[in-house]
Amino acid sequence: MTLSTIPTRALSEQGINFRNLIINGDMSIAQRGTSVSTITSGGYKTLDRFNIDINSAGTWTMSQSTTVPSGQGFATSLKMDCTTADASLSASDYLIVRTLLEGQNLQQLKFGTSSAESLTLSFWVRSNKTGTYAVWFYADVGNKSFSKTYTIDSVDTWEKKTITINGDTASSFSNNNSIGLRINWYLAAGTTYTSGTLPTDWQTDSNGDRAVGQVNLADNTANEWYITGVQLEVGTSASDFEFLPYDVNLQRCLRYFERMKCLSGGDIVLMLGHHFATGNSYGKLTYYQKRSSPSLSIPPLGNISYLSNGNLANPTLVQINGSGLQTAEIRVDASNQTAGGSGWLRINLSQVGFDLSAEL
């Protein structure tokens, strides 16, 4: 059962009102895998909807961890582990874990009006390095930002943090599927981002005001940082974390990224193809509805196969000719294709799979 087929009443009876604006805040969905090491560049690595932005601030492993706060209902967390230290950051160095929200999902906040709603961000966090950490909120429309700090008080202890910010009465979010709001957890920051003054309200973004007081988590390979239970909601207080059914949480993540891969032995058929000409076929790839037309990333051609008339061949070309929100036209060239015939493209469990991305 998918999100669209679960009755609203059934979700409401479970206490689910989608008050949490964050997707995958319990860190339960990790389609790309549970761990990526040797990270020195930004992008989506493991946990869905949470990515990394980094500039010369050490080397890291990002993983889905089972270390969680006891008795809170969480099974997984996001872990950042420093594997190569940078104890002396240059001015422009930084490391950020962030999540991005669509503007059309933020219209109820009434930003840009006198009725703009306050927002409360809550999350569970843990680290061996105590001290001040910064959260930088950035609204893409109007280049507006708001930064606040929290303190990790005790070593290797889960602590719940709550941050409340005012609504912005001056600038609104675009009502479309582009980025509306970025929420950035700083883990390291050079003086370019720490030399100013923490703002007391929304302001035109200033580099120096983003991460004032931020500790340098990159200064030792013993350092690690965990987060889970991330919730952003309307109001000035934090409510209990809103747990979604796993399938609903996955469906929300699939809007942005989908990995097509077998979960058990055997093959998965990706596309049925009609042979337009010898050595050339076209077919339709169907997927969960995306935020925008997705890009396609495929494994090496030697690791996928095209089957026609009982004969297997490795394709020499696989590409998207055109894509929409739910389907794409795929061209596949292979030596076993005869004009007028048909076949199918498939992968097996041992391969990474096809990735469809419509990430913000």
What name is given to the CATH topology of the largest domain? Jelly Rolls
Order of helices and strands: HEEEEEEEEEEEEEHEEEEEEEEEE
Structural class, please? mainly beta
Highest-level CATH class of the largest domain: Mainly Beta
Radius of gyration of CA atoms, rounded to a whole number: 23 Å
Any low-confidence stretches, pLDDT <50, length ≥5? none
Number of helices: 2
Intertermini distance: 26 Å
Total separate domains: 2
CATH superfamily of the largest domain: Galactose-binding domain-like
Helical coverage, percent range: under 10%
Q: Just name the CATH architecture of the largest domain.
A: Sandwich
Percent range for β-strand residues = 35-45%
Basic shape = globular
How confident is the prediction overall: mean pLDDT? 94
Count every beta strand, where a strand is a DSSP E run of 2 or more residues.
23
- Side by side, the strands of the main sheet go 2-3-6-11-8-9-12
| Largest beta-sheet characterization | 7 strands, antiparallel
What are the key terms here?
Immunoglobulin-like; 7-stranded antiparallel sheet
Structure report:
There is one protein chain. The longest helix is centred in the last third of the chain and has 9 residues, at 246-254. The strands form four sheets. A seven-stranded antiparallel beta sheet has the order 2-3-6-11-8-9-12, with no helix packed on it. The relative contact order is 0.16. By secondary structure, the protein is mainly beta. Helices cover 4% and strands 42% of the residues. It contains two helices and 23 strands. It folds into two domains: 3-254, Sandwich (Jelly Rolls); 258-357, Immunoglobulin-like, CATH 2.60.40. β2 and β3 (51-55) form a beta hairpin. The mean pLDDT is 94.
